[in-house]
Amino acid sequence: MKHTVMIDRENIVYAYSPCHINKNEIGQEEFLPSLVLNDEAKEMGCKMLVVDESDIPEELELWQCEFDLEEPDIKKKLKYSPKKVDFVELSVLRDNRNKAFKVGDKYQLPALQTKLTTEQVQEYSTWRQKWLDAPKTRVEPVKPLWFK
Predict the structure, then answer these.
(1) What angle (nearest 5°) sits at the alpha carbon of residue 138, between those of residues 64 and 113?
(2) What is the mean pLDDT of the chain?
(3) Which of 4, 61, 60 is nearest to 37 (CA)?
């Protein structure tokens, strides 16, 4: 299988999708890009490439990769991108934090706290602070058992 890959100006994988497969008039398969390099992507310095699935290192997924465009060996062009993985992991953590805070957001918290014991208020405050620290600690806190 082949993939259309869009890379940003730092050669980090920005988007990817399997190629469309068509048969030409003599019956040969043609791989057509499945992404469009629009004006916004061009302004961001993005480029499009087509890669074969066998060129992706076994231990990686495309979203974790960057391209070394100067590497002549296609098998070594795709490599691990710590910058991209860090960005995605932080984004997921922040998204999970935002979802967790929706349960006890600023409109519900006063009503919630009137029903809590002093110990539960402290547990909630500790849990909330751990969420605020999560981008630094990289630890997703466990919600108190009573807080469902």
Answers:
(1) 135
(2) 86
(3) 4
Taking only the tens place, the pLDDT of each residue in 39-51 is 888 888 888 888 8
Other CB atoms within a 10 A radius of the CB of residue 118 amount to 7
Read off the tokens for 78: 């795709």
How far is residue 49 from each of residues 15, 36, 53, 114, measured CA to CA in Å? 11, 11, 13, 58
CB atoms within 10 A of CB 11: 19
Query: Tens of pLDDT along 56-115?
Result: 888 899 899 998 888 877 677 889 999 999 999 999 999 999 988 887 665 567 777 788
Euclidean distance between CA atoms 11 and 76, whole angstroms = 14
Report the 10 Å Cβ neighbour count for 18.
12
Q: What is the torsion angle, in degrees rounded to the nearest 10, for the CA atoms of residue 20, residue 25, residue 26 and residue 32?
A: -20
- Residues with Cβ within 8 Å of residue 38, at least 6 apart in sequence: none
Give the integer Cα–Cα distance in Å for 78 and 66. Answer: 6
Q: Are strands 65-67 and 78-80 parallel, antiparallel or unpaired?
A: antiparallel
Q: Which two tokens stand for residue 131?
A: 């969420």
